[in-house]
Write a structure and sequence with these properties.
By secondary structure, the chain is of the alpha/beta class. Helix content is about 40%, strand content about 20%. It is built from 6 helices and 8 strands, in the order βββαβαββαβαβαα. α3 links the parallel β6 and β7. α1 packs across α6 and α3 packs antiparallel against α6. The longest helix has 19 residues.
């Protein structure tokens, strides 16, 4: 399968959420590199929309990169943030009318929560985010955990846990690829 991984945000120009001296863009990229290695080892062809910080805070170029690559699925990696520091956990978003996006989101959500023991905030729809709206293939936006929650921040910045996150996402991709039990009623 051809998989496009999008490490959300772009670095200094658009760092995303920031907390505890950490930027979302940095965590997203660290997890993306780990996820790519795991997926390539599993036999997938993988591209990242960015390999390092970039001077572009737009979103359409990410979608265009996936289209040019001929991606079968698109995974955008993010860290969540909230005004309430008690907010925590994992959630995966997909475009409301995408049945395959829904299946992919459910598979990744279940595998990620199982592997990392984060709070299960569910698979949810979003019809406004460019990377979900404009992507031609099944697309998901993974909110791995909350940078604004002390315990989640510890998870997101721990290299071992970042690998667990990557393994969880890869397990979700594997479940999706084999049409596992989470496909029931979504196709």
């Amino acid at each position: 399968m051809k998989i496009c991984i999008d490490p959300g945000h772009s670095g200094p120009m658009e760092p995303g959420a920031c907390a505890g001296g950490c930027t979302e863009a940095t965590v997203n990229l660290q997890v993306a590199h780990k996820l790519r290695r795991i997926l390539v080892a599993a036999g997938h062809e993988v591209m990242l929309t960015r390999e390092a910080d970039v001077d572009n805070d737009g979103l359409s170029w990410r979608v265009e990169a996936a289209w040019r690559f001929g991606a079968d699925i698109f995974i955008s990696l993010h860290c969540n943030a909230a005004a309430d520091p008690a907010a925590h956990g994992t959630e995966v978003f997909y475009f409301p009318t995408s049945e395959h996006g829904h299946a992919l989101a459910r598979c990744i959500q279940a595998a990620l929560v199982k592997n990392c023991q984060t709070a299960d905030r569910g698979a949810k729809t979003n019809d406004e985010w460019t990377v979900l709206v404009e992507t031609a293939c099944p697309a998901v936006l993974v909110e791995m955990a909350f940078l604004t929650n002390e315990k989640d921040l510890e998870l997101l910045t721990d290299r071992f846990v970042q690998r667990q996150i990557a393994v969880g996402i890869a397990n979700g991709v594997a479940d999706y690829a084999k049409g596992g039990p989470l496909f029931a009623g979504t196709m």
